[in-house]
User: Fold this.
Amino acid sequence: MVERLTVIFFIILCFLLGFYLILSPWDALFGPWGENYLLVFLADRTGAPMLQRTVASTWFRGAVTALGVLNLVIAFWEIVHFNQSVKMLQSNGGQDGE
Assistant:
């Protein structure tokens, strides 16, 4: 039962992280992507304003979105191979305790 819950929670985590990474660079709901407090602080402290411009660029946003899509693909793969993942965790669980 623990193995099933582990796989289910992993699937939920991949879905949530995937949706967040897809939406957050493009949506203003979480604040301006290139002007968040941590990014501005790091750019000022390091003296590298190029860091802030790089993170605010559409190329970087696209890369973050691609990571979100990858997370969704992993979640769908885990759904399709749910029983296989559970069996793998069950067989591995007995070997770790020895």
Summary: The two ends are 21 Å apart (CA to CA). Residues 58-80 form the longest helix (23 residues).
